[in-house]
Structures are given as C-alpha cells and as structure tokens.
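Dear all,

This email documents one entry for the complex benchmark we are building for the journal club exercise. For each entry we list the sequence lines for every component of the assembly. Then comes the predicted three-dimensional structure of the complex as a token string, followed by one or two observations. Please use this as the template for your own entries, and keep the labels exactly as they appear.
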Amino acid sequence: SQKIEQNSEALNIQEGKTATLTCNYTNYSPAYLQWYRQDPGRGPVFLLLIRENEKEKRKERLKVTFDTTLKQSLFHITASQPADSATYLCALEDDYKLSFGAGTTVTVRA
Amino acid sequence: NAGVTQTPKFRVLKTGQSMTLLCAQDMNHEYMYWYRQDPGMGLRLIHYSVGEGTTAKGEVPDGYNVSRLKKQNFLLGLESAAPSQTSVYFCASSVESDTQYFGPGTRLTVL
C-alpha cells in the first residue's frame, strides 16, 4: 500500500540551529514533491516544489533535497528563528493530485 | 485578491442533519479540491474538480457530494452528517495539478 512518513516526533531546536525534516514514501513514483507550512488554525501555505530530475532546491533559508532512489526528501531550515515554528507537510504528486504526509511540528526556542 | 475563501468558518451539526460548505476562489484556477484534516492523519482528499462542471472522487469520498457549477465555486455537501465527519475541512485550488492554494478551513463538529 502507499505510504508517506514524516518525522514521527515533533522537533524542538534552539534558535540559530538547522532543522532537518524527513519525508519517506513507498509505492509512489512522484513527478514532483512539495513542502507546505501550516500554522495553527490556518490552511497550509506552499513553500517549495522539487521535481524528480532535481537533486536540490533552495529558497532563502530553506533547502529541499529529493532522492528518488532512496524515496526520500529532506527539508532543511537553516539559521532557524522562533517565527519558523509551525507544522511542515510534505506532499507527493500522485496521478495529477497531491497526497500529503501527516506533518512534522517544529518548535524553535529563543 | 481574496484568494480562496470558505464559508462558514465554524459549524455544529446534529447527527443526520445536512449542510453545504462553500469554497470560492478568485484566481481563475481550473482545479479545485476538498480535503479533511484529522489529528495525526494529515490531509485526505475527499473530492476534486479539474474544471467547471467536472468532479471526481478522492481518497475518502463516502458521505460527501460535490458540485462545480461555476469555475470559481466548489461546494461540498453532507447529506446526513455523522460524528465521524467531525473534522477540519480545507478547500484548495490550483492552476494545474501543482502548487495548491488553501482556504482558511471550516471546523465542523457533528454531535
């Protein structure tokens, strides 16, 4: 069966450190993968998209890698700030739709 | 640009009651989606539409119906609400099947 797994535990990190989130999947062959941010009581907001032929994508302090052999994406937040505290969702292209992971909650301590 | 809006924001229903959730987008997007989000389960696709007048089933369609009579609107209906439909419902839209823009959500409680 198809499965998308993100860090099962919440991530608590010190301000200034790098947060690394994982997204592993089975029985998908996504043409692209996306990462979204969700704040409490709000809808998800798109952050980054990476295609299957791209190894790495960057946007400001965010970096995403995509390894189709390992079936894994890593999402990095460098020089983290308390404002980065949120839940981060990975989403895989699945037959022209998106399938979402359950998300990883990140808390950045000042 | 309001983006994606959802009506209502909150609703409490009794078992067996019916209701319609309205999603509207002003970005001229072709694709629209309805998801539900439950604790620990992530977003699950209920129904989606790839254009005006079209609808298709997602992962968890049972107990829901949808209509897309106008390009900018996507309606989600519950004909006979059940406690298992207590959830937060999100609507989203996209140009094609890529980046999705989400609404603020509707929190529904079925007693």
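Observations: The interface with chain B takes residues 4, 32, 34, 41-46, 49, 89, 93, 96-103 of chain A (CB under 8 Å). The CA atoms of residues 33 and 76 of chain A lie 15 Å apart.
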